[in-house]
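In the current project phase, the collection of sequences with tokenised folds has grown. A sample record is quoted in full directly below:
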Amino acid sequence: YWHFKDKADLFRAMCDRATLPLDAAFEHGCAAACADPLGTLRTLAIGALTNLASDPRAQNVFEIVFHKSELVDELAALAPTHREERGECLREIEDIVRRAAAMGQLPADTDPYLATQAMHALIIGIMHEWVLDPAAYDLAAAAPALIDMIGFFRVWAKGVAR
């Protein structure tokens, strides 16, 4: 409590320190998404998994967030901010998916909202499960294959290979 006013302040600082590199990569990626939206989104997703696999601090934070805390009691005040930040991130991803469909990288009838929700669920699920058992597999090495299991990245990869 010398440096933080309460448990919520400490928790927020811990999360910020672990996610700032991801935020910076995401901001840079969103700017680059104009030329190749789906390729940029794939790179960002792989980067998020690779960062988790290679950064012990991120691993510790994600373990605490996923498996050792709830946004209740002292941390309840963080829930609205968490939902707002999550929503903002998902809206930016949805915009990238929408651009990909507009550029013909995805079928024109792609539902950007549902595609974003599916991608987010897959990535969060991978992170959640890997943090439980990091020895299960090499996440950094497996990241491209895991992300390519999302159907639209497979379509994108075939188009790039042509």
About this structure: The first helix runs from residue 7 to 32.
